[in-house]
Every structure is written in C-alpha cells, then in structure tokens.
Design goal:
Helix content is about 45%, strand content about 15%. By secondary structure, it is α/β, with parallel strands linked by helices. Helix 3 (about 40-55) runs parallel beside helix 13 and helix 11 packs across helix 12 (about 265-275). It comes from Streptomyces chryseus.
Length: about 300
Amino acid sequence: MSDTAAPQMSGEVREALEQRRPVVALESTIIAHGLPRPRNLRVAEELEEVVRAEGAVPATIAVLDGRAHIGLDKAQLDRVADDDSVRKLGHRDLAPALAAGASGATTVSATAFLAARAGLRVFATGGLGGVHREWTETQDESADLGLLARTRITVVCAGVKSILDVPATLQRLETLGVGVLGYGTGNFPGFYLSSSGEPVDWTVRTPDEVAAVMRAQDALAGPPAALIVANPVPEAEQLDPALHDRILAEALDACGKRGITGQGVTPFLLDYLARETEGASLEANLAAVRGNVRLAARIAGAWVRA
C-alpha cells in the first residue's frame, strides 16, 4: 500500500495505540447522512465525549481528499457534518475514492476495514446491515456481512436494522462464521427494539467476558472473522413495539406500491419510520448508539488490560 493510500492516524490515536490504551472506532455515515444538521455535529461530538468519559480514545473514521483518516480533529469533524459533497463509502468504494481524491463518510463495512487495517480492535455502531426481505427475489444482502466474515474486529451494535430479514441475517452470519454474543440478553436485539424475538446462542455480561472471547479468537488462529456484541437498547428507550410493527408494515406496503427497489429501499423505509413515528424511531436509534459506544469503550479498556 502506498503512503498516500495508507490510513492516516491522528496523533492522539497513534499515541494511544503505541501506549496500549483503549481506542474505539466510530463510523462517520451517521454524521454525514444519518442525521439532520446541526444535530449531526452535536451527536458526533457527544459520541466522542462518551468514549472519553469511559477512559478511551475515539477514532472517528472518514475519507477526506483521497486520504483515509483514523481519528478526526474538530475541523475535519465539522467538514464531514457540513459538506454536501461528502459521499457515502462502503469498503468497495474506498479504492476509487482514494484514487479520485474524493471525500466520503464511511459505512460499517468501510469503517471496520479501515479500523482493522490501522490496528484497532473495537468498533461501535448503531445497527448492522444484513439480508433484505424478499432476498429470494432480489438477492439483496448488505456488504457488511461479507466484510465482517474476513475482518478481525469486535463490533458493538444493537443488532441489525429491523427493516431487514433478521432470521435470515442470523443464519447468514452463522454460515459466514461470524460470532454473535448477546450482551446481557438471550435474544438478538431488534435495533429500535430491545428484542427481535430471535435467540442468540451465547450470552456475556461483562466487558471482561467479551475480552476473553476476543483472546480465545486469537488463540484459535482461525479465519479472521469479526465478533458481534449485540447490545440491546434499554426497554425504557426503545420504540414502542406496537407502533414499530404498524408503521413498518405501512412502510413496506408503501415501498412495494411505489416500486422502490435495490439501494433505494433502506433509506425509504428509515425515512418513513422517522416521519411517521414523529422522530421516535430516530431517538431510539440514538439511544442505542450511545449505549453501544459506552459499552465499546469499556470493552476496549478490558481488551488492553488483558
């Protein structure tokens, strides 16, 4: 990899890694494309502060002017939040973006790839992508799954987006050899909901237990797959389940009637949910992200102490 293609770490992140202090990777898509302005910047700063409050260093990841950055300063964070030209980059988009000198916010797949490439081991996000409904007809599956099957990183999330086919996604993760741990729960979280109704095979209850699984992964020296720590949003902060089910059914019906397919499905459904729940789905999403970021910082701390 050339010097210009190698990820550029901030001084704070580099020093933390050299001193074996905890570092948490954060995606930037939620900043550039997931929230309205100016709240997006406030949330980005809040999430970094949550990491710091737990004694870890935040490493928000983005591509700016053809260079991948691991850890952003204030001006760079402002730019990701405010610049309309910032694109949305999955891991397959990284090479063209770097070659073209483009700027982009990183999705789960791109963030996980760049974080692992830089030597980070823990990554916090909201919800993963997965297998889409009507997969047998569309063959639509998130690039997150394939990337996580070959990337050794621990991802703290609130499950997968509830607009997806959750049972099929869990089956796909099993096929790909990606480990799934329920954090304090025997059920896989449902992103906006504390539970998707689907069971998990393994439950952990402390950051130290997660770190022990990470150490065992390394000791086994098997395929470099990720480890998913599925952390449910607190019940008090979840979207009302009955409201969620009703609005999601309406959203899926509207999507079908309008003939929306492919990459247009997910943003349509998420926008529909946010609008028709009067922002309640967004608040549940943010509650989940905050909890995931806090837990990821604690896991990163347990990992460096191991």
